[in-house]
Every structure is written in structure tokens, then in C-alpha cells.
Fold each of these.
Amino acid sequence: MKFKKVHERAGYLGDAIFSASDGIITTFAVVAGSAGASLTDSVVLILGFANLLADGISMASGNYLGAKSEQEYERARGDRQDSSSPAKHGVVTFIGFNLAGLLPLFPFLFNIEGKFGLSAIIVGVSLFAVGVLRSFFTRKNWLSSGFETFSIGGFAAFVAYAVGFLIDKYFI
């Protein structure tokens, strides 16, 4: 019984880490792509919040359906069933994605000078922190884990910025 509880908590932890990281990265990808294309702050906010809600719902429902499908598969095979709630997995995913995904938008919401640069700093620190948090549970070196998460998110941001810049420069 103790293993089931640990396994269940680990599943929710995985949901929270994955969704927080994805929320930060995809929302900042919107910010970076918009900056690369020199779009206005209002467009950044519209696209950012559209991303938060639509992608948050998409991820939550996908996680819910995946967890539910796994349980139904186990039940059909007669295996021992996972006792975790697919709905809880979906809720953890939605909340983690949206809370973390708000971070890149703060400078735009509060109209702070140097919005894009400040957003990039917030995102870098946040991604590193998610990696460090992950290390407490995985027992991986905190610096390595933080840098890994930071690097993956940074690469995604670079790609988004480059796409926005190139499309604005050569196709619009």
C-alpha cells in the first residue's frame, strides 16, 4: 500500500513539473516570437492568455484521458489498478501550466520597462528553479538539473524568437 501512495504522489509530481516547465516555455515562446516579429504588447498579452487557457485545457484533458486510458487498459487486462484519479492528474496539470505560464507575462501585464528582457530573466530563473525543485525528488545534482531545464527552455525560446524574426523580415 505504501508503494501505491509513493507512486501516486510521484505521478502528480511528474504532472506538476512537466506542466510548469511547459507552461513557462510555451508562454515565453509566444512572448519571444512576438518580440522577434516586433508585435505590440497587446498582441503579446492576447496570444499569451490564449496560449495559457487553450494549451492548459489541452494538456489537462490529454493527461486526464491518458491516465484514464491507462486505468481502463489495466482493468481490461485484469491487472492491479492504479488508484490515482485521472481528474486529479488533469487538474494538477492545468494549475501547474497556468500558474507557471503566467510568469513570462508579468512584465507585460504590469507594463514594466524592458518587458522582453525582464520576461527572459524571469523565465530563465523560473526554469532553473523548476530544475532545482525536480532535483530534490530525483536526487540528481541540483545544478545539473537546473541547467538542464534552463537549457531546454532557452533553446525553445531561441527558436521562437528566430521564427518570429524571420517570418516578419522575409514573409510579411
Amino acid sequence: MANLAAVPFGWERTAMAVENVRERLVRASTVLAQAKVAYAVVGGNAVAEWVGRVDQAAVRFTQDVDILIDRGDLEAAKRALTAVGFVHTQAVDMDIFLDGPAGRVKDAIHILYAGEKVLPDHVAAAPAVGESEPAEKFQVVALAALVRMKLTAFRLKDRVHLLDLIGVGLVDQTWTERLPPELASRLQQLLDNPDG
């Protein structure tokens, strides 16, 4: 059993984990921008960026970093990311970049491809990389595109992320008019029952 006296306290470990994700996200984004690879941060870190603009206390921690690129830019992205210590591999038909040889999949950079479905049964493809805007340290997917992505995936964590966006007032009833019927129906479920 580990010597618990030598292990940092839970809050310290949480703060270190958040900082590690931030560092990984900024390192990857910076090198992609320097390599002229168009990209956008998507997933939970994009949700955190949008929620944090309204209410920093409502931000939820996300472990991995999801980045959207054009498939044609994968080789350039590989060169850029491996130059700063990331290791390319594949897991469950997804291109990922481990943070070093001992990196873990759940801490990795996960690559999604613009204009392609993440999973074959998804109702919509990922947005174009151009559907994004600058954040302070990286390019983030536009809110409308992020909402479509989360409604398309609609796993438990996606529903929670959508509830976070609803909870800070970024998404409301008017959004159902802007979405395809299947996605609008999913959003309506959440709007009708925001407490689960």
C-alpha cells in the first residue's frame, strides 16, 4: 500500500491534474498553430471555455483534450505534436497522441475530423474547423457547432455538458428552432428536465 503521508492531498492533486490538462492543451494548440495546422478545441475543454466565460464556478474538469482538424492535415499534425513530446497511436479507430511514451489514453490528445461522423451511427458530422473562434490561448469551436456536436454524441457526459451550457444561460429554448429535428428533440428533453 502506498505511503499516504507522501501523497499530496486531494485538492492539491486536483489542482495539479487541471494544470496538467491546461498545459497539454496549450502545448498542443501552440505547436499546431505554429505548424499552420488549422484546428479547434472541442469536447469538454471547449465546454469549459464557454461556461467559464459566464461563470467560472460552473466549470467542470475534463481530463482529455479533443482537437478537431481536417483529415488532410493529420501528417502535419503528427510532425508538430511529436516534436513536442506527444506519441501518435490509435485506439478504437481514433488517432490519439499520448503525452510521452508513458502517457495514458484517458490523458491523451484525441483527434476528430472536420466534416466526418465521429461514429457511423451519429446523425451529424463534425463541423468545419472554420466554425471556431480565438480563445485566450487556443482556437475553440463556436458555441453553435459545439452544441450540435454534444447533441449528436448525446452520451451521459455530453448531456451533462449541455446541461452546464443551459445552466449558465448560453443555451435556451430558442435553440430548438436552429437545429435539425432529431437534435432539437434531444435538446428539448434536457430543457424539459434540467435536473435529470
Amino acid sequence: MQPLTEKAIRTSFVNCSKGEASRLTFPRGLAELLWPDLDFLGWADPAAPGRAYLVAERAGRPVGVALRHPDQRGLRHKRMCSLCQTTHQGAGVSLMVAPKSGAAGRAGNTVGTYLCTDLACSAYLRGTKKPEGGNRMIDSRSLDEQIESLRARLLAFLDSLG
């Protein structure tokens, strides 16, 4: 992924108002991120529990999505992320819900998918971060093929937002 500025990220959101995008809190160390190792930028809002953000490249442009998820502390069963296919114990995977873009979103329509709660899919896929109480599916494909598969699932999710 190409490095992004805070301004580029704020203007990339397709499913929230400009005011909401202007108030979101960025993750610490944004400038120091290893951008080439990211398939997308994702983070939980440190100032708003239950809110998260995802920014991906699509046709050479950033597309941002605001997400919400319930507090799931205390869960004991495993779930699998639909993007990186990593399983996590408990609250490591959450049902993330995104308002659709445009009129459909303003009418309250949403799309949901199970994602790593910390949105660190790129790190799990590359093996630089290990899931607590979970694991990655055994995949005989090359890392490049796995990344391409993650990107295809991510773009399908973005397509579903309208």
C-alpha cells in the first residue's frame, strides 16, 4: 500500500459524513507504518470503543470505510476473519458492520462481515503477528497468491457497500 497522509485518509471515506471523518482519531505512529507490508490500513478508534476504520487502495485511490462492532469481551469460542482467514479465540474476531454509502446508508442499510478486531490482517497473513488463542489456516499457496486472495475478498466487501 502507498503511504497516505491524514488529509488523504479523511477525504477517502465513502460511508460517513465529512464531519464524522474530520473527528476520527488516527492510530499512533501513522507516519512510521511499514506501508509496503500493508494490504490495507485498519485501526480501532482509540477514542471511540466499538468503532474502527479501514482504508484500502482501489483503482489507485484510497477508499475509506467506517465500521462498528459490539463489545465482545468474555466470548470463548473461536471465529475466523473473512479477509485473512485467521482464527482467534474470544473477541479477536468481530462482526464489523459498515453503513452502505449514499442514500442507502442514510436510510440505515448496512453490510457486515467478520474481521480481525485489531484489523491487523496483513501482519497475520505475513506471520509477523500471531493470533492469541488462534491460528492461520494452512495454505499451500505462495504469500503473493494469499495476498491477492485477501485483496479480492476486501474488494468484494467494498463493492457490497455500494
